[in-house]
């Protein structure tokens, strides 16, 4: 697939309008006019503080938002803190950033009780965190409501780091995200972090050969081998050039055979995605614009709006409606 320039890409992206249900920019303008300002302020303050001790907080929020939207839709279900919830199974065990969402929710409940959903908080906080890391700042349609169920089994259907490009594109396509969206969203790995267990086989025993993955740059193999031997639970940036800055360097890295994860590397060579990778690698502004478009589309996957779902008082628990049942029981008897 070859696309000549950005104007062609731009026209393709907008041939089919995206339907965002009842979401709209400025949803809280009347009910909680300071909502987005509160989110932005807390994210700026906490991310700045946490960046000194945890510079991967932007990656953490992106991963949380992705894993929420891709399991049952963008409904805040990943935030639920119960033993049978999505939060405590499979790849979600390493999801982080819950404290930041809780901090924002506490302040919004103080200012605008039962108005702003946890699902919207997550979308807004992720956007603001990306912007602080040098990424795009974009308008997000809001009006999501929080889910009333959790789907722990669905977590195991998330796309993994060794998936084929065909499986990757199919996974995103089932959620109405096209190739340009999918590759741009994986570009979030520009600030991503991977633990060695996700790629160690590529360094020492690729496909059972007892040798490194021949598609990986030999200097990268040596560097990662050293990193993975240095500590008990080692991890490393997925962008080997500017791992803490949200930019297009990731795409240049995978084109140079310096992709840490197997799926990342495959994007650069597969005929279905290689031309898109090349365009993003050549144009940082193009990547950021398309990433913003893709994030808005992803943020509308499986949303609950209107009378569906709920507005949780605490993001980590379903609202307790038992007292309502008791009141009705007392009236009847």
Characterization of this structure:
The structure is a single chain. This protein is mostly helical and 333 residues long. The protein has a single domain (6-192, 238-298), classed as Orthogonal Bundle (Peroxidase, domain 1), CATH 1.10.520.10. The protein has 14 helices and two strands. The chain has helices spanning 6-13, 35-53, 57-69, 98-111, 118-132, 165-173, 179-186, 200-204, 218-228, 249-255, 262-269, 274-282, 284-298, 322-332, and strands at 193-195, 235-237. The protein has a two-stranded antiparallel sheet. Helix 2 packs antiparallel against helix 4 (98-111), helix 10 packs across helix 12 and helix 12 crosses helix 13. The chain is globular and about 60 Å long. It is an enzyme of class 1 (oxidoreductase). Belongs to the peroxidase family. Ascorbate peroxidase subfamily. Belongs to the peroxidase family. Classical plant (class III) peroxidase subfamily. Residues 22-319 form the Plant heme peroxidase family profile domain.
Structural class comes to mainly alpha
Which fold name fills CATH's third level, the topology?
Peroxidase, domain 1
Radius of gyration: 21 Å
Major sheet: size, sense and barrel closure? Answer: 2 strands, antiparallel
The ordered H/E elements are HHHHHHHEHHEHHHHH
Q: State the total count of DSSP E strands.
A: 2
CATH top-level class: Mainly Alpha
Principal-axis shape equals globular
Level-2 CATH architecture: Orthogonal Bundle
Low-confidence stretches: 1-19, 322-333
Number of helices: 14
Number of domains: 1
